[in-house]
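Lab channel / #folding
Pinned by the channel admin:
"Please post every new chain as: sequence first, then the structure tokens as a reply. Keep commentary short and put observations after the output so the thread stays searchable."

First post following the new format, from NK:
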Amino acid sequence: MAARIEHLITSGTFALDGGVWDVDNNVWIVGDDQEAVVVDAAHDAQAILAALGGRTLRAIVCTHAHNDHIDAAPELAEATGAPVLLHPDDLPLWKLTHPDHTPDAELADGQTLTVAGTELTVLHTPGHAPGAVCLYAPELGTVFTGDTLFAGGPGATGRSFSHFPTILDSIRERLLTLPPETVVRTGHGDSTTVGAEAPQLDEWVKRGH
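Reply from TO:
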């Protein structure tokens, strides 16, 4: 059986630089009836466990280390034995949320993760956060972008550890070069496609963050 993509929405708060905001996060589960990986263990480990339904969890992949994307990761890891994977450039952010817990392994640009016979390629896409990554699954025609690219524009860059020119470079060079029909599955909100977002790049540049 080929890998499939399942979608869960969890709710909680995002906190950084002294502010706190209510947020809804997309949690993505990629796998088959036997095994899966979770992309961004946000807010509610028990809801994610229920969605997994007893399947073997191969990895918990963090697109970046803002608290709303990693707050449930240690609990989910403890319940399943799955390793938590994070790009090392985001360790300073991770430590703000989990000072006494470290990820189990590092993500690196170009690395491939395999689940249910399907490859996910890690693309390092800094800007929203230094260690932000996207996961490209050509066989599934999709890329999981975390908070790097949304329907309608780049992720926010107005807070600590973020940089607007860098996120534009990441989107231009790593994401808009993917096939236009590639579905962009985001960290918050609705999905889009590479082809729908590409024509807006010049407008984002003019607009700034």
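NK: The radius of gyration is 16 Å.
TO: also worth noting, The first strand starts at residue 4 and ends at 16.
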